[in-house]
Amino acid sequence: MKLYVALFLLCLHPRATMAEVMLLSPDGPLQPGAEQEILIVLHDHGLALDEPPPDLLPDSGEIVTATQKLGTGLYSFRFRPSADASDRVEFTLNTDSGTTRISSLPVASIARATLMGPDRVDVVAGSENDVTLLFKGEDLPEPQQLKIVLTEGEVKDISSGPSGLSVTIRMGSERYPRMALLGVWDSRKLDRAPEWVPVFISGRPVIPIRTEPSARVWLTVGKRHYGPFQADQQGIAQARLTVKPGEETASVRILDNLGNEQQTTLTLTGDPKPVMALLAEPPRPPGTRAAPVYLAALDSRGRPWSGPLPVCQATPGGFLPVVTMEAGSYRVSPSSPSAAEYLDVKLRCELTDTVTANSVRIPIGEGVPRRLTLRLYPDQLSADFPVAQVQAILEDWRGERMDPRHIELKAELGSISVDSVKNRSLHAEYQGSRAVARGGDIIKASLDLDPGNGPPAALQVFPQRAGQDSLRLGILGRALDYLGRPLQGVEMTLTIGSASAKVLSDSRGWGQASLPLEASGELIVLENRAGGLVRRTPYLENAGIRTHSTLDPDLEATVHVPISAGLVREVFITTTPSTLYSGPAAAAKVTVRLVDKHGNTVTDEGVKVSTTAGRVGTLHPRADGTYQGWYWPPASMKTGTIRITASGRESTFAATTEIKLLPRPMNRNMGIGLGAITNLGSIHSPLVELSLEQRTPFFNRRLLFRLAAMAYSDKDTVEDNSTANDISVRTTFNPFYAGLLARQEHGLRSSWIGAAMALVMYRTETDFNDPELVRGTGIGGPGIVLFGGLGWRLGVGELGLELRYLQVSTSSGAVEYAGGIGGLVALPTYRILF
Fold this sequence. Notes:
There is one protein chain. The chain starts with a helix and ends with a strand. With 834 residues, it is mostly beta strands. The strands form 15 sheets. The protein has an eight-stranded antiparallel barrel. Strands 1, 2, 3, 5, 6 and 7 form a six-stranded antiparallel sheet that branches. Strands 46, 48, 50, 51 and 52 form a five-stranded antiparallel sheet that branches. Helix content is 2%, strand content 55%. The longest helix is centred in the first third of the chain and has 11 residues, at 2-12.
């Protein structure tokens, strides 16, 4: 049963059981008491998982900042181990799925000094003689690579020789005995303590002791005896002795001429106090672990401080943990400032229950380039004069301006010429004539940092794909000095898993290699090592973190240069359609475009539109810079030409276009006609016609099909010679015809010609003056109809006049009409148009 429950829960949380959580310290092992960044990586066999970060609970130390998301499955937070942290720090991770895991990070051991100096130096107070100290050790630095702090006096010289490094100092002019501290640090050895040398400054005072004349005086200081000193006639003995730091009293024995002896105690100094020195490593480039500050303290007798730990407070930052490196030697690590706090950090330390205190000011971010600012004036250019002033400013992390002469300015289309450098800003002129057609340009300011010098103070490492080979990965490493400048010639070891390569950094500090990927499905970690430093980063291909290129500039700023159109030089006005057909729905879209001399659309100029007939609605601006509105012709107007004019508010420009108004085109019609037919012979008759016409798609819709029926009659009287009676004959003709006609519209007028095939049904009645009539019917044809006509629009229809020629004859049969039954037709018509 338990197995089934476990399988059911596994189905509910399939990803939670597969997700792996890894903690990674980019700057190497944790340093006790030092705040640094830690990465949380959520992955499944090297693929990032888009899940919330786990809740973290360290077994010691404190989480300084909240977790921030860097990419899919990648988070960061800042952590400060406790001052007494050693070996490892364990974290309890509570994941979103309810799983609890334990992960740990190693803690670095305390690094000792690499230089060896004398155990102590003895100096006579008030002496103007220089004192030279010799420092030895393996891999000695150059003199300029030393950083030295002296609690008083000055450093006169630093030189190197076959026996070591010589540091010459001169103490202050005060004559009282006291302690001083000299600290010497090799700037190449980050996170290693300096060598502290105690300086014992002994006094040689002359102490007047009042007694009897000619009396003798002996003094004892510690285990040293001085005297006898004989008093003069005024009873004053001038006693000269040596007083070492921390010696507060001397025993005095006086013997006069009568043999009387007396003893007393003489106070030698005022309030002896301990001494403390601070030595701060130079600030490291932003984004790395903050540089530590080293402390050393001696009591008034020159012994390592054994009292309570020094109390150190940073502004900003508050109280900081103090890490004991050895007796009387300590280390404090200020917090890394946020992006808005890059100003000097002041660190003040004091020895509890004493008046001894010291402070140091750390110029965080000073001289380290951070931001390129690009300004354009004016920020909106005109196509008539596309010229602007460009200003480029380089700032460090403190917001102070830096030398901008190495800033490179480029425009995508236009040209830039540098004018001068004033007030630490680069001034140039932009000429954008070649960008007018596009309506804008892009100006970029870029900076490649100057080569640095000195030892590496920070490393970087980034992924870079090596071609299309999925079994290899490109890795980029970079070495930077204290000011974030690239270092050339630094040997870096680039590592991916078990594969590594040694490379030398180029002039921009970059080194690159292509290393094979292990096919184990584990998380890939990129590593760069050089000069005792390490930098690591996880590689998650699907985390959304961009790769880097050695060609990318170190700093870049971009500004868009909008170039608006100049003064209006041309106006274009168009109507769609350009021909309207009269009727209630007649309307045309009016488009007005204003352009400058370069052909750019002008959008900030007012325009008004007038017309000779009808009205134009309000023009509205469109996204493409044109103005658009509607035109409606007068309802009473059926045909004609209408002129529409666009002009400026001050009539500085104008353009005109025309609209043709035509009658509504006909698709079909039904017509009736009443006319006459004659064949110039026997047939002279009125004629009536009904017709139907339909437009066809042929010949640009100018060809129509007609179906029509006509009716007319013929009456004739014939004398019957046999009976001397008149015979009356009446014939009714009903021709039907179908054909095609070509029609041409001319505004309100129209014309047409056509041809058709006809059949005639006829009926004949013959009256012989008898009670009975003789009747008969027949069908004539086929025949032809040729016709042509003119029409004029009238109301909803068309009044027309058509002339036609009908040629058809009857066929022989029971009833036969002798002769042709066609003729010429003149037919006024009226057609209702559809």
